[in-house]
Design goal:
alpha/beta; eight-stranded parallel sheet; five-stranded antiparallel sheet
Length: about 325
């Protein structure tokens, strides 16, 4: 399927356009099957979309009680003495989703799933990784690394993490029939969730990622955490290869900081250096990929209309 790019006026307009796309797909799909499986992202980009969807659901425009959701990612190493405290930490993605979406719905989803990052004790994880170097290896060409475990780790803790946290989450998605539509944002370096720049596409299912120092520094600079000491050093995340197995993907981008990754992801060849660029391969295999961006983030694409047309990418300019 050709990639579609919709350039909107601003964040609010982007949110409405994307929200309408998602709502229509939910309504149409629920006419044909019992449940809808929705993939969700955190961060600023989807918050407006979530408000639109909650308003539509509460007005009876679709039945939120027939939706099952799967979130992209969750931190490992949030402050807290136990899993419950880490789960409900104000910076956890579980807390974010309750605040920004789930808590707005009068009729709740059938089930809401997030990776179980809060179950992992980061201190114990670091100890086990150091004690059992034969159980894993780092994959990635940049500062952020995927921790790839062998099939049968000697460490009981690492075996539990691999099987109960990573493999089990991917299994639950398959058991649900796969994701009908995935809402994703884009990081400043073109990453999706915590699939950071340089992590290979191949085998990027549900992953444990050691975070780029730049990611940690930005989390502190943006006041999410008081210091690097308090900031998580790892995360559980869906990889690009898994994200782009959804039947439809809606990518959101807003603001000048997203110009370069958005432009590179479509005008350059697919590369792990820009993880969202995997969408080109997804589209070539028949996937439905729609970019909904504001005119600030879409500035580079608007300047290359001819190139986009040559590549078979459909551009709709609604920014006026």
């Amino acid at each position: 399927m050709p990639i579609r790019v919709i350039v909107t006026r601003d964040f609010d307009h982007m949110s409405k356009v994307a929200g309408d796309l998602v709502r229509k797909d939910i309504s149409q799909t629920l006419r044909k099957k019992k449940e809808y499986v929705l993939g969700l992202a955190t961060g600023n980009s989807p918050t407006g979309v979530y408000r639109h969807l909650a308003t539509a659901a509460n007005a009876g425009k679709f039945d939120s009680g027939r939706i099952r959701s799967f979130n992209l990612d969750e931190y490992v190493g949030l402050p807290g003495r136990n899993a419950q405290q880490r789960l409900m930490h104000p910076e956890s993605y579980c807390y974010f989703m309750i605040q920004e979406f789930f808590g707005l719905l009068r009729r709740k989803f059938i089930e809401s799933n997030l990776p179980c990052g809060s179950l992992i004790d980061q201190k114990k994880l670091i100890v086990e990784l150091k004690a059992h170097p034969e159980d894993w290896r780092e994959l990635g060409t940049d500062a952020g690394k995927r921790i790839h475990f062998k099939a049968r780790p000697a460490s009981e803790y690492l075996a539990w993490l691999r099987n109960t946290v990573l493999v089990a989450y991917a299994r639950e998605i398959r058991k649900a029939g796969g994701i009908d539509l995935h809402i994703i944002g884009v990081g400043g370096r073109g990453h999706v969730a915590f699939h950071e720049s340089g992590i290979p596409f191949k085998g990027s299912n549900v992953m444990l990622v050691k975070l780029d120092d730049n990611t940690v520094a930005n989390a502190v600079a943006d006041a999410h955490f008081a210091s690097k000491k308090d900031s998580p050093r790892y995360a559980i995340t869906m990889g690009a290869e898994l994200v782009y197995k959804a039947k439809m993907v809606v990518l959101l981008a807003s603001g000048e900081r997203k110009v370069q990754p958005v432009t590179e992801s479509l005008l350059s060849d697919p590369t792990p250096d820009v993880p969202i660029s995997y969408g080109q391969k997804y589209s070539q295999r028949g996937g439905h990929l729609t970019y909904v961006v504001d005119k600030a983030a879409g500035r580079g694409l608007l300047a290359e209309k001819r190139t986009l047309k040559q590549k078979g990418i459909v551009l709709q300019d609604r920014s006026h």
